[in-house]
Automatic annotation (TrEMBL):
Protein name (record): D-mannonate oxidoreductase
Pfam families documented for this protein: adh_short_C2
UniProt key word tRNA processing: no
Keyword Oxidoreductase in annotation: yes
InterPro entries named in the record: NAD(P)-bd_dom_sf, Sc_DH/Rdtase_CS, SDR_fam
Organism this protein belongs to: Paenibacillus nasutitermitis
GO terms assigned for molecular function: oxidoreductase activity, acting on the CH-OH group of donors, NAD or NADP as acceptor
Family: Belongs to the short-chain dehydrogenases/reductases (SDR) family.
GO biological process per UniProt: carbohydrate metabolic process
The organism's place on the tree of life at top rank: Bacteria
UniProt keyword list: Oxidoreductase
PROSITE patterns in alphabetical order: ADH_SHORT
């Protein structure tokens, strides 16, 4: 049944593909045959990821873009289209976090996080999904959410709110794009030590997380690859859209 997960001939555009989790997912897509555009604000980091994928026999190229800027995304879309001709898979994996207490939160910080985690996904889909429809490319959009989207976590108010918005967008866009053959789903990762959460992972917090995670460990970035490849494949998940897939070690199943 390996053909179900064969992405040969597909092009994936990975926003936030230069992050810890995004780069692992991008590598997984490449290992299954997709050529991958690694898109990030930091071009050097994107190039490092693309080079690592290429060094293992995959096909990848780095592109620079700010997901909160329409002009930046339009430019990136043109560059990626010139490189690949179009795309079949969108990965929305950019993320920004903060530990600012609620009563100290300034609207500049709120806007900054929302611009990346929520507005960014809207702009990406407006530009890149529209191009998919125009080219009559059926495909898959994969959004990276968070366990805090369904169970708000302490210390990350704005991040939690932005990821809850992402879940709603995922389901709305699944309905919006279904007639055009584009599926939209979200992966809800549990706790994977990455840039966004290392700053709050003190011993007390880690102990609390483990008590609420039945598997009693953190996830590793590679453990997101399977779900992403499955959702990217129009053979393996052809009737799957509007879903929120948990990869969280059981965190979402806990009550007390």
């Amino acid at each position: 049944m390996s053909h179900l997960f064969d992405l040969t001939g597909k092009t994936a555009v990975a926003f936030g593909g230069n992050s810890v989790l995004g780069s692992s997912i991008a590598a997984g897509l490449a290992e299954h045959g997709a050529q991958v555009a690694i898109v990030g604000r930091n071009l050097q980091k994107a190039e490092d990821v693309a080079n690592a994928i290429s060094g293992k026999g995959g096909s990848a190229k780095a592109f620079q873009a700010d997901v909160s800027s329409r002009d930046s995304l339009i430019r990136a879309a043109s560059e990626i289209e010139a490189w690949a001709g179009g795309w079949d898979i969108l990965l929305n994996a950019p993320g920004k976090n903060s530990t600012t207490p609620f009563f100290e939160l300034e609207m500049e910080e709120w806007d900054d996080i929302m611009n990346v985690n929520a507005k960014g996904v809207v702009l990406v889909c407006q530009i890149f999904a529209k191009k998919m429809i125009e080219q009559q490319r059926k495909g898959s959009i994969i959004n990276i959410s968070s366990v805090s989207s369904t169970t708000p976590l302490s210390r990350v108010f704005t991040y939690s709110a932005s990821k809850a918005a992402l879940n709603s967008m995922t389901q709305f866009l699944a309905r919006e794009f279904a007639p055009d053959g584009i599926r939209v789903n979200a992966i809800i990762p549990g706790f994977f030590p990455a840039e966004q959460n290392r700053k709050i992972l003190n011993p007390e917090r880690i102990d609390s997380i483990m008590k609420h995670t039945p598997m009693n460990r953190f996830g590793s970035p590679e453990e997101l690859q399977g779900a992403a490849v499955w959702l990217a494949s129009d053979k393996a998940s052809s009737f799957v859209t509007g879903t929120l897939i948990r990869v969280d070690g059981g965190f979402g199943s806990m009550t007390i």
